[in-house]
Structures are given as structure tokens and as C-alpha cells.
Amino acid sequence: MQLYLNFHNHIILVSSNEEATIRKLQEEFHYFVQNEAKSVQTTVEIFRESSPELPSMVAVKILETCSIYRIGPRRYIDYRGEALTIWDKQEESVRIYSLDSDRLYEIAFLAIHSILGQELDRKGLCRVHALGISLGRIDTLVMLPSKGGKSTLLSHLLENPEIKIISDDMPLVDLSGVVHNFPSKISLDKKPEDGPLSKLNWTEFKRTQYPAKWTAGLSQLAARITLSDGKPHKTVLIAGLRLSQGQSILTPVPKWKMITHLMEHMVMGVGLPQVVEMFLNFNPTDMLKLTYHAILRSICAFQLLRKAKCYFFYMGPDRSYNAQLVLEQMYDQQNS
């Protein structure tokens, strides 16, 4: 079974001998699926079968979960005999082997995100580890760490029918500071029991090194996804900070105070796909490429910062009130 994914004209062809894995990836990347493509830049092949025997090699890197080998343009990532990934830089291909369906999907999910991340950087489209929402022509990015409450905040914000989704945790910013959507799946530690998200179909995403998450594809909320209208938008940039107790506060701050947060959530990156990119790219040539990407991300971050209204969000435990403060700020910007 095959799947064509078009990420801003970079086409990835995904194929597998297991239909269930393709169906999961189709739901994850539904917004980027197309029926066919005349040209393909990268291929990802997924095999639910035993891994082929490794050639004789010396490991260039050993991690807790895997060993990495290299011969010429090929990298072999051996996950302790439970799975094997072969990345070929020359052929622009990835092959993934495992008898474990959950492991196959997890590795394929991370591999595709890693590939598209590097390609989007080359096109001047940089990811921000943030919740992205819009209200009319107001785009708002809320930067929070992993498990910081982005999806929970989104759940409460969606109770307002005017709110549209840019991305649950990975909006894009171009070299002029304009925000672009990247709708993928919503991830939560547990299935929501009330609110708009409780009505979605949720699937358990089992992860090897991390606790399982519950995910729901945004194809179920297609009408709530932001569509590009080609018009200039105002941008609100929020850095979220967790309070142990007390009432939430959303307060304006000078732009320079956002630099550290943009470095963490945009330039360096803290998402798992960025970590994959880092540990796969470790020789001197690849480190130069990573430096180039870091410069591109810095330019995107600077342009975003230049045009954005900036706020610190001291978030207390009242989640409904947190959403209310964000909404009030967005309406204020819309009316100003």
C-alpha cells in the first residue's frame, strides 16, 4: 500500500506491506495527502518482517536504545534487534523493519517528521514547538514545554466556535515571520471526558521510551483548521510559565524577553523529531548543515519576533480561565 505526502512541494512516498501502519500515517498527515505525484523526493519503505542481517561494521554511536553504524551514505540504526532502520542519503530513502506493528509506526512517524523538518528548514519554513490558533486575522502561538498543557488549552479554546487550529504543537514560520499551518494529530496523556475533544475518536499511541499517549487526527475537525487567505495577519506570541497556585496572569513584555523562549522552542528545538535529527546527524559535514539550519531558524525567529505582540503567560491551575485570558487578548488585538 502506498501513500503520497506533499509537504510544500517536497513529496514523500510511503509504502508498506502492512495496511494498518499506512492508515495510521494517513490519519496523522491527512492534510498533506495527495492521490499521486509525478516526482518523488524521498521514499520511506516500511516492512513488517524480520530485519535483514547487518554487514560487518563498527558502531559510530551507541545509545541506550540503539546502535548506529555507517557505511558511505548509509546509516544503520539497530534498535537492539527489535527493529532496524536504514537511511540512505544518496538515494534519499529510508527502510524500516520490525515484527512489532507499534514499533514500526513509531519509527516511521519520527522518521517522516525528521525528514520533513530538515526539508522545510531548507525552504525557509521553520517549526515552532507551540500551540497555534487563529481568530479571524489574529494568529496566536503559545509556547509551552512538553506536557505543559498545549492540548488541554486547545480543548478549552475550541469551545469558542470562532477559534481555528493552526497546529496542535508545530506551526510553521517563514523567513518573513508569517505563520503557516501544520495540522497533525492532537496528543493527550488521557482521553478527554468532556468538551469538544471528547467527541473525537481516540487511538492509543504506544511509545518505546515514553508513556503511551492518546491521539486524535485533526481530519475529524477539518472545519476548524485555519486556511491560508493570503492576507496579512497580526501575530500574538505567548511564552507560557506554570504557576503552582494562584490566579493566572497574561502580561505584555518587551520583545527581548522572548529571545530565550524562542531559542528553546524554535531555534534549538525540543520536540522529539528534532532530537532524532540531532542524534542521526553527528559527523562534521552534517554538523555544518545543522548550523545552517540553526541560522535559518534564527532568521525566522527574528522576523516573527519583530512583528509579534509579546506576552508572558503565568498559568495557574484554572484551565478554563487560562483559555479565557488568551481569548480576551485575541479579541483585543482584533478590535485594535
Pick out its properties.
single chain, 336 residues, alpha+beta, 9-stranded mixed beta sheet, 6-stranded mixed beta sheet, 30% strand, globular
What does this structure look like?
The protein is globular, with a radius of gyration of 20 Å. The chain folds into 2 domains: 2-123, no CATH class; 126-335, no CATH class. 29% of the residues lie in helices and 30% in strands. The termini are far apart. Mean pLDDT is 87; it is low at 270-279. Helix 2 (101-122) crosses helix 5, helix 3 (150-157) crosses helix 7 (319-335) and helix 4 packs across helix 6 (284-307). Strands 3-1-2-4-9-8-7-6-5 form a 9-stranded mixed beta sheet. It has a 6-stranded mixed beta sheet with strand order 13-11-12-19-21-20, sandwiched between helices. The protein is an alpha+beta fold. The longest helix has 24 residues, at 284-307.
